[in-house]
Here is the input.
Amino acid sequence: MISPQKTLERGVFLEEVMAYNADYLHCIEPVYRNFIDPIQARRMSRLIKMGIAAAKISLTDAGIAMPDAIITGTGLGSVEDTEKILGEITKEERFLNPTPFIQSTYNTISSQIAIQLKCHNYNSTYVHRTFSFESGLLDALLQIEEGTANNILAGGIDEMTLNHLQITRRIGLWKTVPVSNLGLLHLRTPGALAGEGATFITLGKNPQSNTYARLTGVETFFNLNNSFDPGSKLLAFLNHHSLTPSQVDLVLLGNNGDTNHDPIYDNFREKFFPGKAHAWYKHLCGEYHTATGFGLYLASNLLRNQTFPDILKLNDIAPKKISNILIYNHFRNVNHAFMLVQAIDR
Amino acid sequence: MARRIFITGSGIISCLGANLQENLSALMASRRGTGRIRHIDTLLKDELVVGEVPYNLEELFTLAGIAPAEGFSRNALLGIIAAREAAGNGGLSDHKELRTGLISATTVGGMDQCELYYHDFLHNDTRNGYIDAYDCADSTEKIAEALSIDGFITTLSTACSSAANALMLGARMIRSGRLDRVLAGGCESLTKFHLNGFNALKILDKEPCKPFDRNRAGINLGEGAAYLVLESEETLRITGNQPLCELAGWGNACEAFHQTASSPDGTGAYLAMEKALKMSGLEPSQIDYINAHGTGTDNNDLSEGKAIERLFGEKIPYVSSTKPFTGHTTSAAGSTEAILSVFCLQHQVIWPNLHFNIPMEELHFTPVKSLITNRPVNTVMSNSFGFGGNDTSLIFKKILPGKE
Here is the structure.
């Protein structure tokens, strides 16, 4: 996991929380030569390097050399490369260096990981805003069910740039001034705090001694004309996995400090999960299309470590044992998603 | 027994025409749709041959059946037009109780408008209505809105194999029991962005492209959209739809060789075709026709040709690339060629590989030179390969009466 927090090493889990006062939260990047041949790395843009490094960190952690499938979700791909090309074609319309074009193609991350690993297996990329990571996970779950893969590398990755921040500020996505990430909920202003990150996880068919948690279910909902009814969809989702809301120990919500959209989370947790532990995480990683990757990373660590750091808490309820975590995310009340993550019985 | 997947509807817009009938007529007449660029203000417009859909934005709004509004890219409109045709003949607005998904593929997304307004995006608020149209999800959501599809939607991008992978995911979602039917395919509009990108890679032919020819000189880029309706057998019983054919096999593999080049022996292509064949339960000798990826680049046609020889041995099926007709519609190519393959099963024809003249020295087979109408066509394999070595192969199978 590469994020604005110290998440590069296994076992180091929010021991020190990074506080920022910034326009957006920038990743703490690894030393890339530990993961990629420096000669190759020189030509690669930042997002590709982050993707390869995060993928290798996850595979090493899982003890898997060759995954049976590589699946990446990315809302925007390499923004840096796309901007380079747009800058050139909107001025003179001649560019001779094809590298940014190649790297701006969304599937570059998945395919570069395949090239690094010499992995000829299934390879795909999802590019649907905040459904990107979830769609990839769903594909992975299908493969496990189909029996076509035992170990799957699945990821979510997005970067932010100052240009892109400036452009998307125009449509009200972000805070208009630098803000403190840890004080995000106290601001009570419209717009989220932007962020970025590269999550890769290795999903296996059967739990191993080093397994973090079980990813039981993923479902996404397109809210066409406000047809999305969170209550009925939630009950159906949990019911499908033989659970009721009362059996959920912790709800991990996508609150991002945007007063236009946080009330959806607040209503959701108060209405369906009263008396349960409520947690959030986007003050740590910022908002981005694949931020639920950070959420899943957190949920997996919470389940494995059975610790619940105060920095994540939205209320003062702490479960004795964390067995079932529901992750709920939405983007502008259009793209809603649930993930169910469960503890492994050891 | 795994659920069988049937195709019950389709819709297409390409440089050959704005619907199924216009595309079919052009193909039957062996008439290509490619030519000069008319609707993009680019320095390359008199240099390249492309497969441009012959309508401007305003005309596309009319074809899409929606009032002109801010925030629509050419890409989204192409998508809506083709998706609407497929939804219409696939009866998607009936049986609302069915779980219906939309899986769309695109790579350039709404770049056609973004590149026009990028300067404004950076410096003023005049074009804010187009900022959301920049990404890949935008066209998918606009299609979902136009056709009132809620529930599962997603967007896939594996460059030039995108739409084939969208069809594959659609089939898998149905097979898993998560959806009853899926509208799947892809859309891509021509942009300065990727015309210049491919041009910088020096893989565009300035003349009409000639895949599998010794003197092939590259790609004619194209644009368009194509969608198919997939249903399970159980769903067929509810909708009463008559399937056009079966999607009998699919395979996805990765070259893991180079970001833009195919390996000389076509490892990825071979693996994708082999997986699709295995799933279909067919022997190589039972494939009647291969609608090849056949871009017309030195690299692809050699690599794909070698992979075909390796898999099919001495008995190579009829092979052709239809890209000289349509141009290479990149992310829409997989579903465009799926529809062209379904045409072959419906009308018992095999499309010619236009402009082929001189055989390649490295290959033992040559592509089909002119329209074939006197051979039974019961199975078609359709190949789609992308940058990054993302290779996918699909197999379509005619439903033979009395054998079900």
About this structure: Strands of chain B lie at 5-13, 100-105, 153-156, 181-188, 224-232, 245-254, 289-291, 318-320, 379-386, 390-397. Residues 5-239 of chain B form a domain with the Peroxisomal Thiolase; Chain A, domain 1 fold (CATH 3.40.47.10). Chain B touches chain A through 65 residues (CB under 8 Å).
